[in-house]
Amino acid sequence: MLRIRLARGGAKKRPYYSIVVADSHSPRDGRFIEKVGAYNPLLKKDDPTRVTLKVERIREWIAKGAQPSDRVARFLAAEGLVAWQAGSNPKKGEPGRKAKERAEEKAQKAADLAAAAAAAAAAPAPEPEPEPAPVDEAPASEAPAEAAPSEEAPAEEAKEG
């Protein structure tokens, strides 16, 4: 099948396109049959040399069955050669299969966490047992004083060794 499409040329970040007739299976910038125009996107939109077309040759190729690409069809519609309509792709904004799977997994995890939280809230919490009161031990002020020397003793032994 023959296509009338753009072939990119120009330098990096300085695009320039040739409008060519090529086989649909050949690469974008590869072999083509005939060059039928040019497109320079760096020029202003109202510049007459932004898009140049060989209208007679394009008519001949369309008569032979060549199909314009979407972008070239826009240029040709401006010249009145073909009727161009905007395509409608209702699935354009829809996430892909993998993204849908990830969203389902995330929703499942959130539901599991919510169910676990609800189960924990519904179950009666066991009452903590009160600690028994200390019976006739040394006063609280003496207990830290006795603990402090025992903690310092191993540190002194480590310094000597």
Uncertain stretches of 5 or more adjacent residues? none
Question: Sheet bearing the most strands, described?
Answer: 5 strands, mixed
Overall average residue pLDDT: 83
Supply the helix-strand structural class. Answer: alpha+beta
Percent of residues in helices: 25-40%
Give me the strand/helix succession.
EEEEHEHHH
Q: Identify the overall geometry.
A: rod-shaped
- Strand numbers in spatial order across the main sheet: 4-3-2-1-5
What is the terminal-to-terminal distance?
Answer: 91 Å
3D architecture notes:
This protein is α+β, with helices and mostly antiparallel strands and 161 residues long. It has four helices and five strands. It has helices spanning 55-63, 70-79, 97-122, 142-160; strands at residues 2-11, 14-23, 34-39, 51-53, 67-68. It has a five-stranded mixed sheet with strand order 4-3-2-1-5. A hairpin with a 2-residue loop joins strand 1 (2-11) and strand 2 (14-23). The protein is rod-shaped. The termini are far apart. The model has no long low-confidence stretch (mean pLDDT 83).
Blueprint (SSEs and pairs):
Layout: E1 2-11, E2 14-23, E3 34-39, E4 51-53, H1 55-63, E5 67-68, H2 70-79, H3 97-122, H4 142-160
